[in-house]
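WARN no homologs supplied; continuing
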Amino acid sequence: MKKIIFATSNENKMKEIREILKDLDVEVLSLKDAGIKADIVEDGKTFEENAVIKASAIARLTGEFVLADDSGLEVDYLDKAPGIYSARFLGEDTSYDIKNNYILDKLKDVPLEKRSARFVCAIALCDKDGNSLVKRATIEGYIGYEIKGENGFGYDPIFMVPEFNKTTAELSMEEKNKISHRGKALLAMKGEIAKLC
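OK structure emitted
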């Protein structure tokens, strides 16, 4: 069975990824599974650049095929912040509860038509020689008025999906994987991964 490392230690993310790739003959390992401790400086200016930085660093280190994503939330009213700084927004160790409440507070009196937002995900597939391929996907929605839902993580509890009239944290994993930024980017990448198997 082919092995692919996904350059993350986020177990919530790994659940989503394994679910989407489960029908491929490939073993998907997290950094933790692969016993890798790497401190990679993500100094790219775009989601795509950061995904390639992560994937190529781990690919060079391990000699394996590596997937990495960089994803985040863009809130139009906040000039597309937190954007590529989504994970480090308001500080490296700040809880998402604090981050979500901060965004809700900033948009407190903002009308619905100005609350537009999107999740963005760029996924890179790299080999040890530095060859890379990137897929990007988004999901459009808006920032809700309160924290709702237990199923998601990160900014999921404040991101409303219009067609469901629910936050992404209120969706089942199956529903979320079909429409999410990461789900769509991974599905777009799936054909490329299948070629390796």
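The two ends are 7 Å apart (CA to CA).
OK
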